[in-house]
Amino acid sequence: MSRICSFSDNANRKLTRMKNKRRVLVTGGCGFIGANFVRLLHSRYSDWRVVNLDKLTYAGNLKNLEGISEGSEYRFVRGDICDKNLISRLFAEECFDTVVHFAAESHVDRSITGPGTFVRTNIEGTFTLLEAARKSGFAGNAEEGAPPCFLHVSTDEVYGSLGQTGYFTENTAYDPRSPYSASKASSDHLARAYFHTYGLPVRITNCSNNYGPFQFPEKLIPLVFNNALNNKALPVYGDGKNVRDWLYVLDHCEAIVEVLEKGQDGQCYNIGGNNEKQNIEVVTLICDLLDKKLGLAESGQPRRSLIDFVPDRLGHDRRYAIDATKIREQLGWEPRVNFAEGMERTVEWYLANQPWVIDIVNGSYQKYYAEMYRL
Ligand code: NAD
Ligand code: TYD
User: Fold this and answer.
1) The model's pTM
2) Shortest CA distance to 360 belongs to which of 217, 230, 212?
């Protein structure tokens, strides 16, 4: 296939393009899942070029990618996915054949108190990327054996809330109920429309709740871990019986690679851990793991005594559960890390990386990149 991107004058860049098998734009690569994904690509595919575009909002942290240096395999660009000029320039400069789009506002509680940024980033930002991909003719940039792909990373929350039984399949009707899930659902619809209308090689993944290294400590698992470690109350919303289907983050990243390598354009793939847990079960497990590793809390009580049932989240979805038959049967993907092992690894990671957590809690991680970028 011929490449129709506009080459810059820079001969070195041109050479770089020639030798990299895939030229991948990752958006949101400084966030939780994006950073795990960039690390996975970096360790496994030395012939891919990864350009990480991230605005470095409160959720983006350059320290998540410490140890990965800039060169022909990696470039970091600080920027906003809503910035049309920047995105068009990047597509022209880098001659991408692959986009893996993680960048989003991702926290449901923040979407309840401030939905505006969710609409802007998740809907307008996705639209800006889709438009740039379409106008750059990026699908024509791919080499033989590495088909072009715009992979839009989404969530199971677009399907709404389940009762006690049943699972989300790829055919479940969308029924988002929070500003976060509504904005993600809108972006999924746009992505699908660009496949049907313009033939853009879009694939969509809808994944369940992730946990693991580098998760920002506002989400349930790292928040409870951090509070339990510091003898603070552990806020459990409502009766604690809401159910989430937890998946270790590296299993999610592996699934995305499978969809890139073996998936089909225009298809959606549900990704889940087949691992439903009530929130209260997750919270007590973290307490027990910490008691076992570190001894009882300062009070001499088991850490479970720190659990505090607080008023419920507005519109709190009761249960999510993924039927991942399609990706298992069609692409051969299955989670490799079971919950007990994943939680053990996660707790070990947070214990070994306390400075990372402390920098976030006291805000100094932002000073680190503010200095780098002279903000
Ligand atoms: P995160 O909040 O940890 O990271 C988001 C990243 O996007 C940050 O680095 C942030 O700086 C960047 N970003 C935000 N707005 C931006 C903008 N306007 N321009 C450029 N960069 C911007 O999120 P996450 O948990 O890693 O989730 C990544 C993706 O996966 C999201 O699309 C989310 O909807 C989806 N997802 C998350 C989960 C989960 O459990 N965390 C589950 C399923 C799907
Ligand atoms: P969260 O990690 O915010 O993910 P999501 O809302 O995308 O599922 O929350 C996971 C579950 O934990 C959800 O049911 C809300 C609940 N929760 C609490 O009970 N207490 C908390 O402090 C947080 C942040 C979440």
Assistant:
1) 0.95
2) 217
Alpha helices in the chain (DSSP H): 11-19, 32-44, 84-94, 108-113, 116-118, 126-136, 179-198, 220-229, 249-262, 279-294, 325-331, 339-352, 354-361, 364-372
Structure tokens at 344: 């053990």
Helix then strand count (H, E) for the chain reads 14, 13
Q: Apex CA 71: angle with CA 69 and CA 75, to 5°?
A: 75
Q: Which domains does the chain have, with CATH numbers?
A: 11-214+245-278+317-338 (3.40.50.720)
Q: Answer whether 112's CB lies under 8 Å from 178's CB.
A: yes
Over residues 166-216, the pLDDT tens digits come to 999 999 999 999 999 999 999 999 999 999 999 999 999 999 999 999 999
Answer yes or no: is the C-beta of 157 below 6 A from any ligand 1 atom: no
Residues 165-197, buried b or exposed e (16+ Cβ, 10 A)?
eebbebebeeebbbbbbbbbbbbbebbbebbee
User: If you take atom 6 of ligand 2, which residue's CA is the nearest one?
Assistant: 108
- With the most atoms of ligand 1 within 8 angstroms of its CB, the residue from 63, 102, 152 to mutate is 102
- Residue carrying structure tokens 């990696």: 74
Which atom number of ligand 2 is nearest to the Cα of residue 218? 24
Angle at alpha carbon of residue 55, lines to 54 and 58, rounded to 5°: 110
343, 360, 350, 183: which is closest to 249 by C-alpha?
Answer: 343
Q: Return d(Cα 82, Cα 43) in angstroms, integer.
A: 30
Cα gap 73→70, rounded to integer Å = 7
User: What residues contact 307, with CB distance under 8 A and at least 6 apart?
Assistant: 233, 234, 236, 240, 280, 283, 284, 287
Name the residues annotated as catalytic.
156-157, 180
Percentage, residues of the chain above pLDDT 90: 86
The answer, yes or no, to whether any atom of ligand 2 lies below 6 A from the CB of 279, is yes
CA of 36 to the centre of ligand 1 (A): 12
Evaluate: CB of 121 within 6 angstroms of ligand 1: yes
What does the block give as tokens for 228?
A: 């339990």
